Each structure stands twice: as C-alpha cells, then as structure tokens.
C-alpha cells in the first residue's frame, strides 16, 4: 500500500505513521530523515543537498524526489510506503506522481487525519515535557498529578518556547494554506480519505486501518486476480498438445463464425438484388400498364370522336332528308296551284 499521510501539526499523524509501519510492515518515508541520512552518508544527492543548505538555500524538489526514488528502490519498500511531510504543494505532488508513475508505484491513498484547529491549539500550546526523563504531558488532556512536576521522576515540566499561541496559530494557518490545495488535488484523483482525529490514539488508528483496507483491498484483490489469471494462462500454454488444441478449436470456431458472417452478408446482398429486380419488374409492369391505359384512353377518345362524327353525319343526313321533304312539299304545293 502506497500512502501519503496528511495532517496538521499536532494531529498526531506522526504517532499514527509509526503504528502503521508496525501493522503493515512498510517503511515510513520522511523527507527530513532522508535528507539527514543522505547528507551523513555523503551520497551524490546528499552532497548536493548539503551545498544547498550550506548556502542557505532550500533543497530543490529534484533532490528530494531523487532521494525518495532511491529510498523506494530498497527491498523493504517493495510492498509499499507511507509518505509523511511530502508533498507540501501542488508542483511537488505533480512531480511526485510523475516519478512514481515512472517506477510503477503510484499513490493509492491520501489519508488525512482531520482535527479541529481549536483542539490542535490546545494540544500544542498545552504540551509540557519533563526536563529529566522526557515524559510528555498536556495541561488540557493529560495533566500531571502535581502541576509542573513529572509523575514518573518528579522532574520539572518544561514548555517549549515556540509552542505559544501566536506561533502555533501562524503554523496552523501556513499548514492550511499548503494542505487545502493538496486535498483537492488528491480528491480530484479519487484518492483522498479523511479520518477524524478525535478519540484515543488506538481509536484513531483503528479508523485509519479500516479506511486503508477499504481503499486498498479491492485493488489488491483485483491485482491478485489478474496475476492469477496470467499465471494460469502461462500454465495452460506450457501444458501439452491436448490443451494446445483448445486455442486451435477456438480459432476454427472464429473462422466458422467469420464464414457465417460472410454467408449471411452474401444472403443479404442476394436478397437485396432480388428486391431490386422485383422493384424493376414492378416498375416495368407499371410502365406497361400505364401505356396500356394510355392506349385505351386514346382509343376511347378516338371512338368517342368517331361517334360524335357519326352523330353529326346522321344529323346532317336527317337535315338533308328534312330539306328534301320540304322541297318536295313546296313542289307539291306549286303543282296544286
Ligand atoms: Zn520525568
């Protein structure tokens, strides 16, 4: 599991990170530790970091990323890691993502331990430590039996000067300014999960483990299934001819399927052709029919005209007959006179 841990100063994420290291057997990668180790070991990146620090400059992101990459190459980081204190801004998270993509170990989960600012303020400003044995107390949450005195050794309890309200408020404001964009960055990737940092250390730890397992188990099981499938496929490939026949059969089936497709396609085109022919035929028939009807019509018209002519002739003939009759009648009348 590859986790980026987010949480304000005083959120207790450092304590939780140590518990996660024990539970899941993965290293916690803190850039502060990496820098110190690299400088002490005098590695190439360590030397570059040292020159930057000696000249009062910030150690560049490239150097820090190089150190993280070297750390991830160690065998204990094979099954994952917990990044704590890095990245702190968007450019850092982008270059971290790019580097992790290159080495094939992308972040799976960004886990935020969320604690209210008022609680954080009390946790930090109320912190007291024994000057003799280093035992830690808090004047709000875990008070010593005698104020200002260590329960264990009776030593005097001390208050760190930079744990005053003004500096703490300022530190929290800086943290919020840095972390808010990071939260939206990982939220956009669907990797941000939040655990409320209230309750006892073990209560918070249990909640964190629940979230981690809910987020990472489905991925892990999916990966396992894939690797099992590929393994069984390899086994099958290694096995004898009997099993080799299967892919052949499959290939034959595919061919047959292709043939079927071709056949059906051919049938379809044949059907289309037939349809076209039919269409042509009907069209031709229609044309013939039209011609026939047209002929009939003209014939009818002609006969009609003929009839008209005949009638006219008949009328004319009748008129002639009538005229002749009239003439005859006139002649008769003349004769009578
Ligand atoms: Zn003490």
Overview of the molecule:
The chain is α/β, with parallel strands linked by helices. The chain has helices at about 15-25, 30-40, 45-55, 60-70, 90-100, 115-125, 165-190, 200-240, 240-335, and strands spanning about 1-5, 30, 80-85, 110-115, 125-130, 135-140, 155-160, 190-195. A hairpin with a 5-residue loop joins strand 5 and strand 6. Helix 1 runs parallel beside helix 8 and helix 2 packs across helix 4 (about 60-70). The protein is elongated. The relative contact order is 0.08. Residues about 245-250 have low confidence and may be disordered. Zinc ion binds near residues 130, 132 and 133.
The set of bound ligands, ions and cofactors reads:
zinc ion
Number of strands: 8
Q: Helix-strand pattern, N to C?
A: EHEHHHEHEHEEEHEHH
Strand fraction band?
Answer: 5-15%
Q: What kind of oligomer do you see?
A: single chain
Percent range of helical residues: 55-70%
Please state how the strands of the largest beta sheet are arranged side by side.
2-3-1-4-8
- The total count of helices amounts to 9
State the major sheet: 5 strands, parallel
How far apart the termini lie comes to 150 Å
Overall form: elongated
Radius of gyration: 50 Å
Uncertain stretches of 5 or more adjacent residues? 243-248
SSE-based structural type: alpha/beta
Question: How confident is the prediction overall: mean pLDDT?
Answer: 80
């Amino acid at each position: 599991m590859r986790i980026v841990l987010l949480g304000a100063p005083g959120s207790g994420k450092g304590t939780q990170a140590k518990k996660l290291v024990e539970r899941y057997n993965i290293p916690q990668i803190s850039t502060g530790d990496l820098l110190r180790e690299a400088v002490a070991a005098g590695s190439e990146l360590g030397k570059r970091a040292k020159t930057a620090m000696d000249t009062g400059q910030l150690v560049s992101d490239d150097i820090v990323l190089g150190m993280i990459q070297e750390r991830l190459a160690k065998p204990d980081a094979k099954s994952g890691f917990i990044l704590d204190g890095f990245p702190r801004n968007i450019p850092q998270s982008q270059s971290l993502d790019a580097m992790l993509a290159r080495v094939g170990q992308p972040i799976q989960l960004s886990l935020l331990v969320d604690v209210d600012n008022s609680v954080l303020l009390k946790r930090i400003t109320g912190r007291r430590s024994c000057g003799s044995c280093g035992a830690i107390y808090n004047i709000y949450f875990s008070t010593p039996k005698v104020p200002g005195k260590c329960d264990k050794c009776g030593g005097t309890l001390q208050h760190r000067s930079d744990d005053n309200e003004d500096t703490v408020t300022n530190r929290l404001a800086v943290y919020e300014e840095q972390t808010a964009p990071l939260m939206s960055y990982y939220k956009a990737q669907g990797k941000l999960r939040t655990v409320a940092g209230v309750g006892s250390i073990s209560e918070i730890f249990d909640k964190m483990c629940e979230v981690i397992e809910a987020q990472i188990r489905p991925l892990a099981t999916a990966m396992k299934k894939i690797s099992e499938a590929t393994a069984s496929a390899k086994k099958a490939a290694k096995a004898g001819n009997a099993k080799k026949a299967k892919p052949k059969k499959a290939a034959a089936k595919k061919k047959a399927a292709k043939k079927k497709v071709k056949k059906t396609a051919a049938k379809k085109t044949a059907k289309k052709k037939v349809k076209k022919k039919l269409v042509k035929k009907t069209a031709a028939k229609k044309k013939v029919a039209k011609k026939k009807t047209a002929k009939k019509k003209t014939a009818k018209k002609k006969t009609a005209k003929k009839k008209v002519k005949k009638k006219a002739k008949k009328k004319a003939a009748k008129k002639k007959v009538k005229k002749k009759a009239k003439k005859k009648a006139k002649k008769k009348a003349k004769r009578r006179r």
